[in-house]
Amino acid sequence: MSTFPPCPKCKCExxxxxxxxxxxxxxxxxxxxxEIDTELADKVLKVLDSNGNELQNGxxxxxxxxxxxxxxxxxxxxxxxxxxxxxxxGDHNIDCKIEGFGSMGLKSEFVRKA
Length: 114
What we know:
It is built from one helix and eleven strands. By secondary structure, it is mainly β. The protein has a three-stranded antiparallel sheet. Strands 7-6-11 form a three-stranded antiparallel sheet, with no helix packed on it. Strands 8-9-10 form a three-stranded antiparallel sheet, with no helix packed on it. A hairpin with a 2-residue loop joins strand 1 and strand 2. The radius of gyration is 21 Å and the shape is elongated. The N and C termini lie far apart (51 Å).
C-alpha cells in the first residue's frame, strides 16, 4: 500500500512521487503536498452573524427572527439568547443547546452576536 496521500482531484489512492511532486496515474494530476498542507493550515473557519460580526466558539448569540422548528409544537421566538455556541462547517453552521428545545443547528444569518 502506498504511503502517499490520495489524489486531491479524483481521490485515486495509487499516487506516486516524481522528483518533488506527487502524481496521480488516473487523472495525471501533479501537486506539491507541502503546498496543500500549508493551505489547509491557513484555512480558518470564519462565520459571520447577520450584522457581519465574526462569531467564535463559546460566544452567545440572540435569534433575530421567529424560526419554525421541525417537530416542535412552537416556534423559536426572536430575542431568544443562545449561550456557548459551537461553530461547524456546513449549511447550519452553529451547533447549540437551547433551553426548552434541546440540541439544534442554526444558520448564522438568523442570529446576532450578544
